[in-house]
Design a protein that fits this description.
five-stranded antiparallel sheet; Cyclic pyranopterin monophosphate synthase; MoaC_bact/euk; MoCo_biosynth_MoaA/MoaC; Alpha-Beta Plaits; alpha+beta; 158 residues; elongated; molybdenum cofactor biosynthesis
């Protein structure tokens, strides 16, 4: 197991110094799911919720979440993001939605945290917009699916 980089020799938390790292294209993909009543999913798909187009709002929320990541995660570096792609799909059993977010930048550190924050923010937004009609929604399986670029190379969940 690699050494934890966000702690100094005395065990104090620190922001990692990335000043000597190479600038490379960094990409991270994260996903998550929200389970809901089938009727709730139907309302989302048919645009029947009073708060508006749930997926359009969740899409914007994901972008905002990625951009605000260093404001939320204390040791996260502020990055100039160059692209964010969000997609939503119905779960196989028809009882919810899956979000997948891809975040890209040219920088000295990865964008995994931005992708995870974007996916989480999208799911939380769906929850917020639907909670009046569905109290039993469950957000789960938020995770990094892949990362590309940087010294440690590419990684993909199997």
């Amino acid at each position: 197991m690699n050494k934890l980089t966000h702690f100094d020799e005395s065990g104090r938390a620190r922001m990692v110094d990335v000043s000597t790292k190479e600038v490379t294209t960094r990409i991270a993909v994260a996903s998550g799911e929200i389970m809901m009543q089938p009727e709730t999913l139907e309302h989302i798909q048919q645009g029947k919720l009073k708060k508006g187009d749930v997926l359009a709002v969740a899409d914007v929320a994901a972008v905002m979440g990625a951009k605000k990541t260093p404001d939320l995660i204390p040791m996260c570096h502020p990055l100039m993001l160059s692209g964010i792609d969000i997609s939503f799909s119905e779960l196989v059993d028809g009882n919810g939605l899956r979000v997948e977010v891809s975040v890209k930048c040219n920088g000295k550190t990865g964008v995994e945290m931005e992708a995870l924050t974007a996916a989480s923010t999208a799911l939380l937004t769906i929850y917020d917009m639907c909670k009046a009609v569905d109290k039993v929604m469950v957000i789960s399986n938020i995770r990094v699916e892949e990362k590309r670029g940087g010294k440690s190379g590419d990684w993909q969940r199997l």
